[in-house]
Amino acid sequence: MMPELGKYADAVLSSYGISIALLLVLVIASVHRARRVRRELDEVEQRIRRNG
């Protein structure tokens, strides 16, 4: 299932781990920003509705 990496196993596996960690950070940051922007948009829309 996993190819034999020999002496490069540590480097390859750590590269995979770092890549996955960076992807997770990007996804979490994106979701956090989307929630914040949605909340700000809702606030602006409510202000517009109140002021007509």
From TrEMBL:
<keyword id="KW-0201">Cytochrome c-type biogenesis</keyword>
<keyword id="KW-1003">Cell membrane</keyword>
<dbReference type="GO" id="GO:0017004">
    <property type="term" value="P:cytochrome complex assembly"/>
</dbReference>
<keyword id="KW-1133">Transmembrane helix</keyword>
<keyword id="KW-0997">Cell inner membrane</keyword>
<comment type="function">
    <text>Required for the export of heme to the periplasm for the biogenesis of c-type cytochromes.</text>
</comment>
<protein>
    <recommendedName>
        <fullName>Heme exporter protein D</fullName>
    </recommendedName>
</protein>
<feature type="transmembrane region" description="Helical">
    <location>
        <begin position="12"/>
        <end position="31"/>
    </location>
</feature>
<keyword id="KW-0813">Transport</keyword>
<keyword id="KW-0472">Membrane</keyword>
<keyword id="KW-0812">Transmembrane</keyword>
<comment type="similarity">
    <text>Belongs to the CcmD/CycX/HelD family.</text>
</comment>
<dbReference type="Pfam" id="PF04995">
    <property type="entry name" value="CcmD"/>
</dbReference>
<dbReference type="GO" id="GO:0005886">
    <property type="term" value="C:plasma membrane"/>
</dbReference>
<dbReference type="InterPro" id="IPR007078">
    <property type="entry name" value="Haem_export_protD_CcmD"/>
</dbReference>
<dbReference type="GO" id="GO:0015886">
    <property type="term" value="P:heme transport"/>
</dbReference>
